[in-house]
Specification:
Blueprint (H helix, E strand, L loop, with lengths): L1 E7 L6 E5 L4 E4 L5 H10 L9 E3 L5 H4 L2 H8 L3 E3 L1 H11 L7 E3 L4 E4 L4 E6 L8 E6 L4 E5 L7 H7 L4 E5 L4 H6 L4 H8 L7 H11 L6 E5 L8 H15 L8 E4 L6 E6 L1
Parallel strand pairs: 3-4, 4-5, 5-6, 10-11, 11-12, 12-13
Antiparallel strand pairs: 1-2, 1-14, 2-3, 7-8, 8-9, 9-10
Bound molecules: zinc ion (ZN) (2 copies).
The site of one zinc ion has 5 residues, from loops.
């Protein structure tokens, strides 16, 4: 069994729960410790039962509750070397006994789950994407990136569940209230992924094994769940890879647990 819950998604805070029979991981902790514990409680998970906390990068919407969660629930905290350096001052003192190094491009093995990491282009220190793989299933988690490179597409190919950033609708962003410097940052190669870029990436990697697509990290001001959903579904339909096959497309909620996926 390989299970996913999107606990919270968007620039107001990100956290993802991934579990197998013998491993329970929290990916990112961009909410207060109290809210993270409440979200885990909502899905029936005791934070003390977590096997570890993995950080994708150092931005606050992924790390602001990381120190408190690791200390309070005494779980190993995994981050790349650049993320440790950038986030150390924000997370407070972390006991050496629970500090773990996450490779920027490599894999780490838990009891019945392998976590593969790969670099993504984003304006943070050493940001990574993830593949979670058991003997029977795999989930890709790719958010916070400006562009999808061929190397990332290669990593995403063949997995059963694709969690992909669909941050903004380009027109809403350009017409919206953000200052030009911020718009430029978001649209840049190290910014965030638009609905169209997410849709194109998904259309090129969806394969017969893919059963679930989850759209994540939607902008509160520059996107709407309906627009992201329709943009992606339209592209997937145009790509028309496997007619008659069941493919679930969901949009992660901003503030509450959503998109529960259970794979074999
Ligand atoms: Zn983020
Ligand atoms: Zn970020």
């Amino acid at each position: 069994m390989l299970e996913l819950w999107m606990l919270s998604s968007g620039s107001s805070g990100n956290a993802v729960y991934i579990a197998t029979e013998n491993t329970r991981l929290l990916i990112d902790a961009g909410l207060s410790g109290k809210r993270l514990a409440a979200a885990l409680g909502e899905i029936g998970v005791d934070p003390f039962s977590l096997s570890g906390l993995l950080l994708s990068h150092d931005h606050n919407d992924h790390t602001c509750g990381a120190g408190i969660m690791a200390r309070r629930y005494k779980m190993p905290l995994y981050a790349t070397d650049p993320t440790w350096r950038a986030a150390a001052c924000k997370m407070g003192p972390i006991p050496q006994t629970i500090c773990r190094l996450l490779p920027s491009c490599g894999s780490i093995a838990f009891a019945d789950l392998t976590v593969e990491t790969f670099p993504v282009p984003h304006d943070a220190a050493g940001p990574v994407g993830f593949i979670f793989r058991t003997a029977k299933a795999a989930i890709a988690l790719v958010t916070d990136l400006g562009v999808v490179t061929p190397a990332i597409l290669e990593r995403m190919r063949g997995v059963n569940c694709l969690v992909m950033e669909a941050n903004h609708d380009e027109k809403m962003l350009l017409d919206g209230p953000y200052p030009w410097s911020l718009k430029k940052r978001i649209l840049g190669n190290s910014g965030h992924l638009s609905n169209v870029l997410a849709a194109e990436a998904l259309a090129s990697v969806v394969c017969p094994a893919t059963t679930h697509v989850v759209l994540a990290h939607l902008s509160e001001h520059n996107n709407l769940p309906q627009i992201a959903f329709e943009t992606v579904c339209e592209k997937l339909a145009i790509a028309g890879p496997h007619p008659g096959r069941r493919l679930s497309v969901q949009v992660a909620e901003r503030h509450s647990p959503s998109c529960n996926v259970r794979l074999a």
